Every structure is written in structure tokens, then in C-alpha cells.
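Two proteins follow. First one:
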Amino acid sequence: MDESVSLAQLAHRLEEVVGELRGIPVDVERLDDSELVRQQIAQAARSAGELRAMHPVGSPEKDRHEQKSRRDVLDALRRGVAMRTIVHASVLDDPRKAARIRELHAAGDLHRVVDEPIQQLLVFDRAVAFVRITPVAYAPGALVIRQQSLIATLVDLFEQTWTRAREVTEPAQRLTPREREVLALIAEGRSNSAVARALSITEAAVGKHVAGVFAKLELPATEDDNRRVLAVLAYLRGAAR
């Protein structure tokens, strides 16, 4: 599916929903108190059977609070709650957050990663959604949405983003945008010098990026394998995006 088309369709659907709701009471509540937001999220989580989540940044919680949050997620998974979570790639730059994400992914909270900007979103059972009031990291407050037409649109947004996202277990999620550019040009059969000319950087810089790609794709130097070819194969399989 063409991404620009799908986003345009989504925007059109949002306009339709807004039009349908004109003059109709909308079940959207604004909560400016972050503690009250946490309480309502906890209440929704206790009875939920399914959770869709998008997180542009990692949790600000530390130590005891972070451990409690982790235990709550694991307890929910043991109760049989189906969880899918989309995170922005920048979250994985923090080794501690990356380790937690991989642990939860292995436990059943399936994670995918995107490079595009996303907003904070929680949708429980297609029944209630929480959206941050302002699209700023750790900003206080949230909109609590129970209007079914709006929730359906948010679910569509989540599912389209999920389809485009990549698995959190793919080593390529750690590649920088420049490393992905270098790998894409290598896949076209270009030499390091040709890549350098195409990107207007030095050949030495290309060499460093290539070494970074090899390390992040876990391709050690051996006499039997050509790492350049293996990296290209990973790119062509879609495992290096």
C-alpha cells in the first residue's frame, strides 16, 4: 500500500468523522492532572483484553516506579491480555529502555519500531483511548476518548503504522539513517568511492559507516563469508531498512 495514499485516506476519514459529529455530543474528556490520567489508565487496564499502544519516547519512570510498571505489564500478559506496541527508533538508543522493550517483547507484548514521528496513544479493547493533549514528550494531561467513530479512526492509524513498522528483533533497527543510505547504495552495486561521491562524504567516512553496518547486522569477518554481500542480502530481504 502506498504510504501517501493511505495517510491521505486516513486524513479524509478524520474529516468525515468530524463532519458526522457536528452537533452531536462527543464522548471525549480532557484530563489535565497526570495522576488522574494514570488512575484511569490503570482502571482500563484491569479489565482490558487487548491493548494497542504507540510511544514516541521511553518512559520517564526510574527504578522503583519503572519496576512496578514492568511487573504490571508482565502480570497483564499472564492474565492473557493481547498487547501490541509501536515505539520510535530513538527509544532504542537507551540501552536500558532497549533491554526492557526486548524483555517485554519476548514475554508477549509484541513491539515494532518506526522511524517516522508518532504520538502517544493507548487504545483498550476498542472501547477507550488515551491521547496526549499536546504532542510533547512527557507533557501532562490526556484526552480520554470513548466516542466509537473516533476510536475506530485511531485504530486504523495504529494498524497502518503497525504494517509499516519493522520487528524490534531485527538488528537493522539500530542502523542510523546514514548507514541505511550507505547500505542502499551498496545494494545497487556501488563501490565505497562511488557511495562517497553520491553522498558527498569522504571515502573514509563511508568505510566507517560500512563497518558500523557490519557490526550492527552482526556480520563478523570470516574467510568463508563476504560481509558486503550478506549485508546486501539482509537489505533485499527487508531486514535492513
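Second one, unrelated to the first:
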Amino acid sequence: MHILAVFAHPVRESFTGALLDAFLQGAAEAAHSAEIADLYREGFEPRFQPEDFAQFKAGAVPEAIREEQARVDRAEGLAFVFPVWWWSFPAILKGWIDRVMSQGWAYDFSPARSRGQLADRPVLLLGSAGSREGTYRKYRYDDAMAIQIDVGILGYCGLRNVSTRILHDVNDDAVLLAAHLAEARRCGREFGRWPHPATVKPGAVREA
């Protein structure tokens, strides 16, 4: 399938960048094609603009945002590769969500009912995290992220076939970093082959 990989790290040569490369390598091994939306290097403007607000009145969307939406429309799968900052997306990726997932395209809202409008397809969240997995479990950061992102953003827009892989304890441990890169490569190679979230109980480990 054709995958849009949305990458959000200010340093392309970072470990998160290496995770992106490993993911893309695995995807190529499975004969997937990929397009990269490198938000920093492409100079994406994450701030919601006055012209963006017109979507709620006249349905108008800036041309630059329509181009981003066309990338999503072309994709048969989506991958978000990012560092976990403050238990969520980096601001530039949150801004991409704010602007690209617009009313009338990603969802339709009315006081009576909201409806996601994006065609469901496999979505992978691949995040690098400095904290240990035990910290996430102790404070339920993983559950909070799942509710905010998997349900509140992606599910709201109609994207429910989501798998989240947070790679914890990113530090100078060469063995662990190699294992993380191998996992990212596996996620690319096995992209889309995971249970639908409805079959996974809250708090359970999701397999990519």
C-alpha cells in the first residue's frame, strides 16, 4: 500500500530520524511505497491562521492545507513518527492536526451529531520516549495519550484502525537503541497487520 509518513523532529539526523529510516526500510521490504511529510524541513506553518477559521463559516481552506489533505487522500495508510514531548505530539505535529484535519473534510460537526469523514485505513503512531515504560504505566500516560490521540483526534475523524508503538527509555544504551530500530523496521515490514483497536482491551499492549 501507499503510506504517508508524517515526521516531526527538528533534527533529521536524530534518533527519531533513524526510526523513520528504519520504518521506511521495513516498508520497502514489504513492497509498500511511501511519501514523507517532513514538517520541519518543509517549513510547515503550525499556527492556526485567520484564513483557517473560514472553514467554519464558508468551508474555505487555504491552498497549502488542501495540498496536505491531498497527501492524506492519496495514502492507503498513515504513519506518524515523532518524539513524545510532554506526553503528546510536538507542537508542529499538533499544529498540522489543527490545520489539516479541517471541518468539512476530516469531520462534520453539528450540535446534534459529529461524524468522522476520513476513510478508515491503517494508522501507526511511532514515538520515541526518554521515560521508562514503567513510568508510563505508573502514571497512565499511555492511556492518556490513547484517549487524546487515538480516540479524540484520529477516531473522531474516522480513523479507528490505529496501532501505537512508544519506544521507551531512549538513551545511550546501544543495545536498546538497536532493538528500537529493529522494532521500527518491523513496524514498516508488518504495516497494517494488527488487530482492530476494538479487539484490544484498555491498558493492553498493542502489537504492531
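SUMMARY FIELD: Confidence is low (pLDDT under 50) at residues 197-208. The two ends are 16 Å apart (CA to CA).
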